[in-house]
C-alpha cells in the first residue's frame, strides 16, 4: 500500500507541475497579446490609426493632407482602416499562441475561433467607379457647399413723370373737384 501512496503523490506532483507550467505559458501569451498593436495607414497617407489587440482604437491621426477631402470620405477611410486592422488580430493571436501554448491546445482554438468571429476579414475593396463606368451621367452637384445664390433681379426702372408744363387734361391745372 505504501507504493500506491507514493505513486499517487508522484502523480499529483506531476499534475501540479503541468498545471503551473501551462498557467505560465498562458500568462506569457496574455502578456504578448496585450502588448500587441496594429497600425494602418491610408494609401495617400492622410489618415493613420493604431488599434490594440482588443480591437479598440488607440490612436487616430488625420494629417493636413486630408484638409481638401469631404468629411464623409475621411470618416469612410477611418472605418475601412479600423476594420482592416481589426481583421489582423486573429493572425497575431494565432502567432502568439503558436509561440507560447501551441496551436493544438483546445482553449487556444476556442480563443482563435472567437477572434475570427469578432474580427472578420474586411470586404473586398471595390475600385472607385465613375458615372461613366455605369453608363450613367449624373448632373447633380456632389459637394457639400450650398447651391450658389441667384442674383437679384434688376430693380424696375424709375417711373417717369411728365413735366408739369405739358398739361393736356383741359382742366387748366386745376383740380377736377374744384
From TrEMBL:
Residues 126-143 have a biased composition (Basic and acidic residues). GO terms for molecular function: DNA binding. InterPro entries: YbaB-like_sf (IPR036894), YbaB/EbfC (IPR004401). Residues 115-178 are annotated as: Disordered. Gene3D superfamilies: Nucleoid-associated protein YbaB-like domain. Pfam families: YbaB_DNA_bd. Residues 146-157 have a biased composition (Pro residues). This is YbaB/EbfC DNA-binding family protein. It comes from Lentzea jiangxiensis.
Amino acid at each position: 500500500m505504501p507504493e500506491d501512496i507514493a505513486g499517487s503523490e508522484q502523480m499529483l506532483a506531476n499534475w501540479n507541475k503541468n498545471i503551473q507550467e501551462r498557467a505560465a505559458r498562458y500568462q506569457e501569451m496574455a502578456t504578448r497579446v496585450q502588448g500587441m498593436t496594429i497600425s494602418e495607414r491610408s494609401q495617400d497617407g492622410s489618415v493613420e490609426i493604431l488599434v490594440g489587440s482588443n480591437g479598440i482604437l488607440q490612436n487616430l491621426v488625420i494629417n493636413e493632407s486630408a484638409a481638401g477631402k469631404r468629411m464623409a470620405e475621411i470618416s469612410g477611410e477611418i472605418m475601412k482602416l479600423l476594420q482592416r486592422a481589426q481583421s489582423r488580430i486573429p493572425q497575431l493571436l494565432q502567432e502568439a499562441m503558436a509561440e507560447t501554448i501551441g496551436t493544438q491546445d483546445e482553449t487556444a482554438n476556442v480563443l482563435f475561433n472567437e477572434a475570427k468571429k469578432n474580427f472578420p476579414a474586411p470586404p473586398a475593396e471595390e475600385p472607385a467607379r465613375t458615372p461613366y463606368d455605369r453608363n450613367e451621367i449624373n448632373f447633380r452637384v456632389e459637394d457639400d457647399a450650398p447651391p450658389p445664390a441667384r442674383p437679384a433681379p434688376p430693380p424696375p426702372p424709375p417711373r417717369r413723370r411728365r413735366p408739369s408744363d405739358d398739361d393736356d387734361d383741359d382742366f387748366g391745372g386745376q383740380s377736377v373737384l374744384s
